[in-house]
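Hello K.,

You asked for the raw outputs rather than the summary table, so here they are, unedited. I folded two proteins back to back in the same session to keep the settings identical. This is the first:
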Amino acid sequence: MHKKHNQIITNWDDAYENGAYIENASTFPPLWNQQAAGFRQKMGERASLDVAYGSKPRQQLDLFQPKGEAKGLLVFVHGGYWKAFDKSAWSHLAQGAVAQGWAVAIPSYTLAPEARIAEITQEIGAAIMHAASLIGGPIHLAGHSAGGHLVTRMLCSNGTLSTHKATQERIKKVVSISGVHDLRPLLKTRMNNILQLDEAEAITESPALQQPNHLAEVICLVGENERPEFIRQSELLANIWAGLGLETNLLIADGKHHFDVIETLATAEV
């Protein structure tokens, strides 16, 4: 008999604390900004920056186009626990898909506490629909951390795109990188002072607790060296949604942690 033991979590702030467990964590954001700015400059006229998808200041996306007609659209949604970062730090993650002939949209969105997570979900749906109106063909979604949550929300029967079938049906693949798919543990963290989640919203906004209404391929990618809670969150969605009829894959990236697992996007197959 083989016994698998899940450690009881008593410190939820520590369970979701990434930087303290990553060597030289503070060097990553400046590096991302530098790489992103370099990629935008390299793209030149094939980069359309600050494209509005709504009327609020942060409802903008950057669109990077390949040479020639695009094979389809990849939308990448950034993380930061719904309360940090914007699109400008992640432009370089588009280079792998652009090199393969895909257009890539990277949206910003209103951050907590100015927006609740349910409102952010609505904004990402609007960003995807606007990008889809600009680029034809299949749509792939990818998101990191909070962004992994936001892209998997797009497949839920109570999601923003559930009433926009023409766009949703174009979604063929969703990649959640280190995603958070059950939000209820966040109720026990200090960050909830900013997120302002209550139990009802945590349930409604948790992909793992919702019924998917579109059968796209779902990939849950997580780093081998991430906090155990992020590995559990990825295992959770891949397990539950497989039981609801989706093709799901759990990929654990050797030697990667929460801040460098996203590097695979810059060169990965779309």
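The second followed immediately with the same parameters:
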Amino acid sequence: MKQPILEMRNITKKFGRVVANEDVNLVLNAGEIHALLGENGAGKSTLMNILTGIYKPNSGAIYYKGEKVKIKSPRHAVELGIGMVHQHFHLIPTLTAAENVFLYTPTCKAILNTKEMEEEIARCSKEFHLDVDPSAKIWQMSVGEQQRVEIIKLLYRGADILILDEPSAVLTAQEAVEMFKNLRKM
């Protein structure tokens, strides 16, 4: 049997007396798509915030690619290969898609090679079936296109696990259908 890419074992998170997660277990295998469902306040976002280093669990353990890890920060999570696209995007509207992607890379330089960046993002966009114009300004894009830029930001940095926080909530019906098709292709 293949080893899971990620395991969260007996995760508990408390905020004072409030228990947000109690002994939660989650196992992810490569190529799977999961959905966490539950009412508001059920602890879904808390669990994902633990996985991405925003919160620290009170108890439990996370195993990534067979190794026990303590995820120190969102940056550390991305370095490991775990990335989250939040419901409210973290993009700079006056920059292009390519500039937004490269701004978050460790190799970002003060002087950017626009042509090279756009070629890289076009390649990544094509590889993952995410239609993005690398030279378009974020403010000119639909919400669906902006979401694809956020996903490319993580994939370009080598994310093995993508966490999408309420991904269809901000999309039109057609964009939601297209997003789910793209996720299945990936």
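DSSP finds six helices and six strands in the chain.

Happy to rerun anything if the numbers look odd on your end.

Regards,
P.
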